[in-house]
Amino acid sequence: MSLMGDAYPRTDEDRADAGGTAEAAGPAGVPDAAAVHARLRESAPMVQCVTNAVVTNFTANVLLATGAAPVMADVPGEAGECARLASALLINLGTPSGEQREAMREAAQAARAAGTPWVLDPVGVGSLSLRSAFARELLTFGPAVIRGNASEVLALAGAGRGGRGVDSTDDVEGTGDAAMALSGATGAVVAVSGPVDLITDGARVVRVPGGSPLLTRVTGGGCALGAVVAAAVAAARGLASPDSSLAGAVAAHALYAVSSERAALAADGPGTFAVRFLDEIARVEPAALRGRARAGETGAQ
């Protein structure tokens, strides 16, 4: 495997290679993931994570590898204050204790008031009633992006009952119409993770193929993606992109696909993959993301 590129490109040459601005788009209006990735590395956005206890460390390390600055402020009394200061916010429902739900509500309210973009990861929605009801409450605070697996997105859209706990039992291919409807109803970009990720703003559909199945063997592999989406949305806003939520979601999924593919080539199993994955996220050059995303129909491959 070739390990190309500096971990944190900052030069004018790097910026030119990344493609300029997020307003530059690929075929059929697909956002320029390379430009967003370059901006993320340059700007080091501060990302607040109110996330589950199982994945906190891995999520913070993934964010650091992207060049972002994680802040794991997840207690009532300071969660809202941090959300007003942060570049972006992640709310992940993996372990929704009473105290954490209070912090999530506080952070989401503050983010909406301050104009801080935030990402909802509705872990386990549909299969577990408490978090399902709470996720619907959080939707009223206007997330910029909803990122989940197929079963979670279908359940949140009212078109499914959820998966097996936090695991999806549905295919991404069957979520297109529901994802577009959920986007239209909430105003959020909806990103559905799978072998071929589907991302929609309610009008357009973008697909990002690739990645590695080993991501599903590492605790936090999917949850950390939500944090990267938040960081990338903040970066896209810094480029004055008119579709920053879509551009950020596409860039984050493209970065994950490239990094996990490279990591899998050098991994002996889940343990070495997790370490290699962090290395590859830090190494991936912006130009490697160009061409990873494509426009597609809701049911297209």
Brief synopsis:
With 301 residues, this protein is an alpha/beta fold. It contains 11 helices and 9 strands.
How would you explain this protein's 3D organization?
With 301 residues, the chain is α/β, with parallel strands linked by helices. The chain has one domain (25-295): UDP-N-acetylmuramoyl-L-alanine:D-glutamate ligase. The protein is built from 11 helices and 9 strands. It has helices spanning 12-18, 33-43, 56-66, 79-85, 98-114, 129-139, 150-156, 176-186, 223-238, 244-265, 270-283; strands at residues 46-50, 69-71, 88-92, 118-121, 145-149, 189-193, 196-200, 205-209, 294-295. It has a 9-stranded mixed sheet with strand order 2-1-3-4-5-6-7-8-9, with helices on both faces. Helix 5 links the parallel strand 3 and strand 4. Helix 3 runs parallel beside helix 9, helix 3 packs parallel to helix 11 (270-283) and helix 9 crosses helix 10. The longest helix is centred in the last third of the chain and has 22 residues, at 244-265. The radius of gyration is 17 Å and the shape is globular.
